[in-house]
Design brief:
Number of domains: 2
CATH topology of the largest domain: UDP N-Acetylglucosamine Acyltransferase, domain 1
Shape: globular
Bound molecules: coenzyme A
Strand order of the largest sheet: 4-7-10-13-16-19-21
Strand content: 15-25%
CATH architecture of the largest domain: 3 Solenoid
Largest sheet: 7 strands, parallel
Structural class: alpha/beta
Distance between the termini: 64 Å
Number of helices: 3
């Protein structure tokens, strides 16, 4: 017997949309109806259904589910805006978990969050709405991530780490246990984060905190960090 598939829209068609499409197809629960974008991308093998203004017609046509295929590198609120529009137009924005990811049964995952290939989310972790938990990340026990944050490929958040809203943890960064990363913060690729990162602050290299800045640690906007 054929599986009943829900029709799903991808808002956006860049690299993040391609990763999402791959995982959606692996799950087998949805059929991708197409994508919305101001520019069609011939390399993305789905119909372009128009721009964001077409959300009402797309929903009326029976496409009830949608995901936001727009990435986030620590700046801008495009994902928020598109998510709000999708919700306003009646779409369900589901959690997409690639079948190769491992998610503890005691972990909580918020609406619209994407768990990419090979991610590992351990016991009692809690992830907010619309996050990107990217390829091969490790979120250890009791980690908390707020809304709209992106943990990039290979990053490791050790036990009880907290990440705020709209923050970006770069690829392969390691954040040691119990460290708190604020809202709208950016951690550079490959960083080792040993101390709290204030709101609105970018750090990279070995981050030991404001008081003990290591030679490779820089607060790109010291005023915002209260220095
Ligand atoms: C930290 C980051 C956000 C800074 O970006 P930026 O503000 O544009 O900074 P710049 O590229 O101008 O770099 C400023 C300086 O910091 C250095 N630098 C930047 N990122 C660094 C990093 N992650 N580690 C060490 N040094 C870094 C640059 O070499 C440069 O040094 P210089 O002044 O001696 O030439 C960015 O470099 C980064 O690491 N982004 C994450 C990328 C990533 O994880 N992508 C995954 C996509 S899914």
């Amino acid at each position: 017997m054929d599986k009943i598939c829900q029709k799903i829209l991808i808002a956006g068609c860049g690299g993040h949309a391609k990763s999402l499409a791959d995982s959606i197809n692996s799950i087998g629960q949805y059929r991708i109806s197409g994508y919305t974008s101001p520019l069609a991308d011939d390399a993305f093998p789905y119909p372009c259904l128009g721009e964001d203004e077409c959300f009402p017609q797309i929903f009326e046509s029976g496409v009830t589910h949608a995901v936001v295929g727009i990435g986030f590198m620590g700046k801008g609120k495009v994902r928020d805006r598109v998510f709000e529009q999708l919700r306003k137009n009646g779409f369900t924005v589901p959690v997409i978990t690639d079948p190769s990811a491992t998610v503890s049964t005691t972990a909580a995952i918020g609406e619209g969050t994407f768990i990419a290939k090979g991610a590992l989310i351990n016991a009692h972790a809690s992830i907010g709405r619309m996050c990107i938990i990217n390829t091969g990340t490790v979120l250890e026990h009791d980690v908390k991530v707020g809304d709209f944050s992106h943990i990039a490929g290979g990053a490791v958040l050790c036990g009880e780490v907290q990440v705020g809203n709209h923050s970006f943890i770069g690829a392969n960064a390691t954040v040691i246990q119990q460290v708190k990363i604020g809202n709208n913060a950016i951690v550079g690729a490959g960083s080792v984060v040993l101390a709290h990162v204030p709101d609105e602050t970018t750090v990279y290299g070995v981050w030991k905190g404001i008081e003990k800045m290591a030679s490779f640690s820089v607060v790109l906007d010291p005023k915002k960090a209260g220095v």
